[in-house]
Structures are given as structure tokens and as C-alpha cells.
Amino acid sequence: MAHNEIRTAVVLGGTGWVGKRLCAALAEHGMRVVAVARNRTEGLRCDRFASLDLATAPAATTAALLHEESADLVVNATDAANATDGWDRTETELVRANVSLVEQVLQAIRTQPRPVRLVHIGTMHEYAPVAFGTPVGESMPCAPESAYARTKLAGSRAVLDAARTGAVDGMVLRAVNVCGPDPSRASLPGKLMALLAAGTVRLPIADAHRDWLDVRDLARAAVAAAQRPGVTGVVNIGSGRAVPMREFVETFVREAGSPLSVVEDTAGGVHSYGGSWLQADIRKAAEVLDWKPRWSLQESLRDMWAAR
After folding, report:
1. Which of 59, 169, 172, 171 is nearest to 115 (CA)?
2. What is the pLDDT of residues 267-300, one digit of tens each?
3. What is the rounded distance in angstroms from the CA atom of residue 14 to the CA atom of residue 152?
4. DSSP secondary structure, 175-198, as one string
């Protein structure tokens, strides 16, 4: 499938924070976009919205949708952590959202009469924690700490196994934490927005370093992956820079035009999943996808506050 042969893109989880940006980015590249989610939200840019609970829908239902829309591309942006109770869900709920759903999608794609490219959005938390200062490359071992990350890893492995056998033309993008316009309320950026709007940024700040990427850059990476049919495997997507969590919070407050005196750290040994250090090695993204981040952290956080 050549670049210009992607006529219809189906975005699973199209109303989420990442999904909405993906829909817009794919539309900007001239593709017909079908957004799939349970409920439609405002500001969604798509040619068609399909209401479907992907976590419970049988593979045959998803297959019928893909066939009806003549899908050339499926981007899986479903993610239990985008829900308001994301990280606090039971393991059973996480398995349904992050593993069973992916297996159903893979089965649906296999039944299509035409080639369908799959881009699956995973997470850098699928890797094992690393020593302080170590960039995380695609060859690093996977041994996630949380139930969320363990189920995300299982979903990613299902895609990679299917691609390895030739059953599906799929790629996994392991993304770092995202920031930028219109954040999920359940995410740290979303919580920071609500706290600052109320006047005081009072929260526990972990003693950890994290890599942050603008959500628009993640969408650009997914488009680049979509346009490379036949290229499979894992590609890490991030800024390539680890930032102390306190610096991240203070940078947001500063870019929003508020004094740092509004920040109150209530941390009492707060645990941060993924260890004390997470920095993506993004050299493969540059080599394979011809991609690099466009928005700086300061620009991303400034735009995030401005878009409220």
C-alpha cells in the first residue's frame, strides 16, 4: 500500500485526548476519517462517527464496520488511562480494555478482504524501570510495574506477534507521557489545569524524572507510521529529554502566567510507577519514521493553558 492509497482511516478511541488529535492530523493529510467510540464529543474532526463500545463488541461487529467503511488504516488509540478512573480500574477491567479489545481488533482486521494497516499506541511504561540517566531504547526488557502497563504490554505483544507472522501489517508506537491542548481530566496535565484554575496547585509531586511529549507530536508520529506499510515492530515516541516532575509542574505554572508561589507539594513518599527515570531513546523514530518532536515543553504547556 503506497502513501496515497490510504483513503479511509478508522480511529478507535477517536474521542479521547489522543484520538481527537489523531483524527485531526489524519484529516489534514487528506484521509477520510471515521472516529469510533461510545459517545461523540464536541470539537471532533471526522467524516463519520460510529458509536461502538469496543471493549464489549464482538470481533464480527468491528469487522463489519471496517468492511463497510472500506478501511485502509486502523489506529488504535483506545486507552483505559484516558478514562476518569483509568489507573484505578481493576485488573479485569484493564484486561478487557487493553488486551481483549486488541485481540478482537486483530481478528477483525484479519477477516478484511483488503490490506489494512494497523498502528497501535502503546506506552513507554511497558518497559522495565532503568537506572537513573539511562535512555530507554526499543531493545530494553519489558517488565512493567503496574496492572495498567502490564495489560498495555500484553496488547502490544499481541500486535507484534500478529505482525511477525504476517497476519497483520502492524506497528506499535510506545509513547511517553503526553501534554498539550485539551488534556484528559484524569491525566496529570488535566489535573494541573483544574488546580490552577481554582487558584492553588496543591498536589503530591513525585521525586522522579519523566519524558513529556506534546499530544500533537504523538499524532504526527502515528500518521508517519501509517504511511509506512510493511514496516513493523516497536518505535519509541518521546521528546528524548527527562524532566524532573517538579520542574514540569513549575514550567506549566510559569507558562500559564502564574507565580510559583501557587505550587504546594503535598508529597509524602508518593510512589511513581516506572521508576525514578524515564527518557525515551528516539533515534529509531528518526530513522524509521523520519520523525522528531516539533513542540518544546514550554510551547506545549503554554498552548495547553491557552486552549482552556
Report:
1. 169
2. 765 666 678 999 999 999 999 999 999 999 999 9
3. 18
4. E-EEESSS--TTSHHHHHHHHHHH
pTM: 0.95
- Looking up cell 471532533, which residue turns up? 44
Contact 134, 241 (CB under 8 A): no
Tens of pLDDT, residue by residue over 162-181, are: 999 999 999 999 999 999 99
The Cα–Cα gap between 128 and 81 comes to 19
Asked whether residue 82 carries a pLDDT value surpassing 90, the answer given is no
Q: What angle do CA 166, 123, 2 make, to 5 degrees?
A: 40
Secondary structure (DSSP) of the chain: --GGG--EEEEETTTSHHHHHHHHHHHHTT-EEEEEESS--TT---SEEEE--TTT--HHHHHHHHHHTT-SEEEE---GGGSTTGGGS-HHHHHIIIIIHHHHHHHHHHT-SS--EEEEEEEGGGSPP--TT--B-TTS----SSHHHHHHHHHHHHHHHHHHTTSSEEEEEEE-EEESSS--TTSHHHHHHHHHHHT-EEE---S-EEEEEEHHHHHHHHHHHHT-TT--EEEEES-S-EEEHHHHHHHHHHHTT--GGGEEE--SS---TT-SB--B--HHHHHHH-----S-HHHHHHHHHHT-
Q: How many CB atoms lie within 10 A of CB 109?
A: 24
Write phi, then psi, for 73 (nearest 5 degrees): -140, 135
Q: Report CA dihedral (62, 14, 167, 116) to the nearest 10 degrees.
A: 90
**Which amino acids are annotated catalytic?**
148
Cα 90 to Cα 79, 85, 133, 292: the distances in Å are 14, 10, 32, 35
Neighbours of 169 (CB within 10 A): 20
Distance between CA atoms of 240 and 210, rounded to whole angstroms? 10
